[in-house]
Amino acid sequence: MTSERKIILENTKRSLIKKFLLKEIEGAGFGGMSIQRTPLGTRINLIVERPGMVIGKGGSKIKQLTSTIQTKFEVDNPQIEIQEAGANASLNAQIMAEKLAEALERGWHFRRAGHSTVRRIMKAGAKGCQVIIAGKLTGARHRTEKFTEGHVKYCGETAKEVMDIGYAVAKLKAGVLGVKIRIMRPDAKLPDEIKLKFTKEEAKEKEAAKVEEKPKKEDKPEEATPVKKLTEITGIGPSVVKKFEKARIKTLEEVFEMDLDDIMTIEGIGRKTAEIIVKNLKKLIEEAK
């Protein structure tokens, strides 16, 4: 067998194993896979958010996966190792894509789920991210919505090196929604980034200048305004607030990110009520701050 054909067969096998594991450990937060050949066998390293779901009771699940991979894909002595995603879960594109798909299946509005995912990724320290949701979002026709923040590279060698990409699918009554997430890692180094090197004398002068500068007061993080404040708007009662809380919307900032049509999708809220909220919302948030 030629080396080219061998490489193609090996990569095909890796792709099929990944597809198999994605289906088998659905819900465990699959975050990636690496395969290494060793003298003792084949080591398969899995990054997951919930290791218990992969290991199973008494290791039954992981034993079943090992035997299936060995027989179905003809892998020599496979050894599956589980690595917990831990604090880095919010920076793993595949895990975040699956979480977003789960949120959409639970009934979250696509715009709220998209903005929430972007905020969570950027809060974890990412340099940039993009969330793409495509499918029947609000009507019978397919459309695509993108939520972008920070730096995002789309093509070229730079994109391959610094961007982490994850895919997932949300199965809804209206149809299937495709989810794609791009994340630029915190340690990503772009080609146009430069680092200045100073001589010892220049470094000392710079340090002395820093000491002389007065420390600036740290800006206090903005606190979220509870959705209960809506009752301060004339014509909006506690029943409307309960409908927002039932839709899992807890802050006025989340309501502010929604447009008129989004608010009207909440059960029990009509056009007139939605128009009153949109008209007075900005003023209400400013008064609360």
Would you give an account of this structure?
- Helices cover 43% and strands 20% of the residues.
- The protein is an alpha+beta fold and 289 residues long.
- It has 3 domains: 11-84, GMP Synthetase, Chain A, domain 3, CATH 3.30.300; 89-184, Ribosomal protein S3, C-terminal domain (Ribosomal protein S3 C-terminal domain), CATH 3.30.1140; 227-288, 5' to 3' exonuclease, C-terminal subdomain (DNA polymerase, domain 1), CATH 1.10.150.20.
- The strands form 2 sheets. The protein has a 4-stranded antiparallel sheet with strand order 5-4-7-6. Strands 1-2-3 form a 3-stranded mixed sheet.
- Helix 4 packs antiparallel against helix 5 (110-123).
- The N and C termini lie far apart (70 Å).
- The mean pLDDT is 83.
Judging from the principal axes of the Cα atoms, what is the shape?
globular
Residue-averaged pLDDT: 83
What composes the largest sheet? Answer: 4 strands, antiparallel
What is the total number of structural domains? 3
How many distinct helices? Answer: 11
Order of helices and strands: HEEHHEHHEEHEEHHHHH
Please bin the fraction of helical residues: 40-55%
**What is the C-alpha radius of gyration, as a whole number of Å?**
25 Å
**CATH fold-level assignment of the largest domain:** Ribosomal protein S3 C-terminal domain
Low-pLDDT stretches are none
Q: What is the level 1 CATH name of the largest domain? A: Alpha Beta
